[in-house]
User: Fold this.
Amino acid sequence: MKYFVGIFKIQAQPGEMQTARELLADDLAEVGFESFEDTTEGLTAYVQEQLFDQKAVADKCDHFLMPGVKISFSVDKAEDKDWNETWEKSGFAPIVIKNALCIVDANSPGNDVPSLPAGSPVIKIQARQAFGTGTHQTTRMICSVLLMMNLKGKRVVDCGCGTGILGIVASKLGASEVVGYDIDEWSVENAQHNARLNGVDNMQIFHGDANVLSHVSGMFDVVLANINRNVLLADMHAFNDVLHSGSTLVLSGFYADDIPMIEQCTAALGYEEVNRISEDNWACLQLQKK
Assistant:
């Protein structure tokens, strides 16, 4: 996945610097940035190339909330490397969700799998430059929602599938067919690999963005999308086009403060909220099409 790196210099009083960094990080997250590092002069932040909006970033800096604080920035291509490499090598401990699902690191087979009720799925994930292992709040929340749904015989789409974890979970919980897509070739390959690793043979993964959906025949019962807020809003019509009345839309990847904006968009398309959960200010919405 290709990234831009932004170098942000903050001119503020010494006692205001940390607050300014935190507010700036919040602002940048709203326009697609996803990783932040404090520097002596301000902040370094990373954004996927396809999500970068120069005008939106400049507007955030020009209209910063703290009076008297000035922000300048420069943006360049980030080094093309596996940003998850260190994390991938260290792995993750087994993750149990609602005592009914366990996600384990396929690279660490020695990890003890907790005792779960009979029939509870155990999902093996091997992450390679892809998002989605269950360690992040948004992934866990969508998995929690899936556990509360009846997926037997349902047709499911995993949008921006990353490692493929959500589609794999849906398949293990009874979905009859799963379609996934991702803009990152590494993610597509990783999702295909993880599907094979878990014996999932009813899952197709495509390379591309939401336009992929216009080339897939038929309607779907469930759309899963754990994506940046701005991408969710931009892709909502594409999601809507493949959902029939009574279908379910499960969304995450955004903050609780973003819920009004998300629901304004979905309400206009005829969706009503069924359930919402949050964890550490991250949010997840389950909506139904009228």
